[in-house]
Amino acid sequence: MANTSAHPIEKVSIIVSHGSLEGVYPGLIMANGARMEGIDASLFFTFFGLDAIISKRMHNLKVATVGNPAMHMPTLLGAVPGMSSFATSMMKREMEKIDIPPVGEFLTMIHDSGAEIYACKATVDMFHLKPDDFCPEVDGVISVGQFYEKAAGGQIIFT
Predict the structure, then answer these.
(1) Which terminus of the chain is more exposed, N or C, with fewer CB under 10 A?
(2) What whole-number distance in Å separates Cα of residue 51 and Cα of residue 45?
(3) Domain residue limits at 119
């Protein structure tokens, strides 16, 4: 039986903490979907998820083949030289077939649609990054407390 008293989601804040290709895309897809539905969205990149918004790294994200049970292959096979590159090229080819853009283009689309994009200050400090290390779509480097202020009243999604 459906709950007729449920309120529609009006706001989401998505945390991206993984820097692999399969770790970044769920957050991008969810933010894009939210904006397409008229839902306010923000992305908060932390730890290795920062690779998706660092200009020099965002175009070189790879599929994690070692220790990834979803690859359905022995870990040893995932460690074979070139396996990650092979899996990455296959995944990118399949995403292109269904019109999912590359990370940089996707971030631009999401940002242009009105979503906000932030980097985690603690992680930026820990990795000794500077504001000019990030792609232009990044709206700022904010603390966790500032993230919670911006997320207030919405759903927080951790990918």
Answers:
(1) N
(2) 9
(3) 11-158
